Each structure stands twice: as structure tokens, then as C-alpha cells.
């Protein structure tokens, strides 16, 4: 087997930065159906620093307006823009668990669930602290 190419700069979850990755393996799957087509490429990348493996699935199909546009998914998911849970000591355990669920929803790109969760968390904190009345509800609606 020949020496693999050092040919991609990918964020490494273990190194916590963008590092050079070697392409270890590649598989291309083409499907030609009139009038539709799809091309899916599978790449196995190995980090040049820590030797952690990453699978990239890149796809292109006829449903996209720009036929040259490809979407890529990485497994495990890249952690470059993820939030981590912060410990809160004086918050009830139920609200703390709810907060962790909101962070998970944000990290999984579930925007609607995250925003609904934030609203519910805010109301839960107001109930816990005894804040009642129309004032906080009016401020929430603005």
C-alpha cells in the first residue's frame, strides 16, 4: 500500500483544534436514475497528531439547485461549536437537569426545542425564586 496523502485540515475532537488528517480509505457510491442522480462519498480520516479516526460522508444529489454543492457529515460529530454544561450549585436538581437537556438540544441543532426549553427554564427559575405577577410575563413577551 502506498503512503496516504496528507490532504485535509479537519477539526479533531481529541486534539481540540484543526489538524492535518490522512485519508486512510475512500468509497464512492453512484446512483443514476433518470432524471435523478446521487453521489455519496465515504472517507476514513486519521488525525496526524493523535491518530483518532473520523468518518466523513459527503453527498450530492439532483435535488440541490447547485449541482456541484456537497453536504458533509462527520462521525463522531465535530465538537468545535458545542456548549458544555456549567455547574449551578443553588439551582434545584430538576432545573439543573432541564438546563442540561437544553444544552444537548442546542448542541444537536434543535433550535425550536432549545428556545422553548429556555423559555420554560426562565419560568421555572422565576417560580423557584417566588417571582410572580404580570411583570415578568410582560417582559418575556417583549
Give structural attributes.
elongated; five-stranded antiparallel β-sheet; 2 domains; single chain; 142 residues
Plain-language structure description:
With about 140 residues, this protein is of the alpha+beta class. It has two domains: about 5-75; about 95-140, no CATH class. Helix content is about 30%, strand content about 35%. The chain contains three helices and five strands; from the N terminus they run βββββααα. The protein has helices at about 95-105, 110-130, 135-140; strands at about 5-10, 15-30, 35-45, 55-60, 70-75. The protein has a five-stranded antiparallel β-sheet with strand order 1-2-3-4-5, with no helix packed on it. Helix 1 runs antiparallel to helix 2. It is elongated and about 60 Å long.
What is this structure, in a nutshell?
This protein is of the alpha+beta class and 142 residues long.
Task: Summarize the helices and strands and which ones pair or pack.
Blueprint (H helix, E strand, L loop, with lengths): L5 E7 L4 E16 L4 E11 L5 E9 L9 E5 L17 H15 L3 H19 L4 H8 L1
Antiparallel strand pairs: 1-2, 2-3, 3-4, 4-5
Oligomer state of the chains in this structure: single chain
Radius of gyration: 22 Å
Number of domains: 2
Order of helices and strands: EEEEEHHH
Distance between the termini: 64 Å
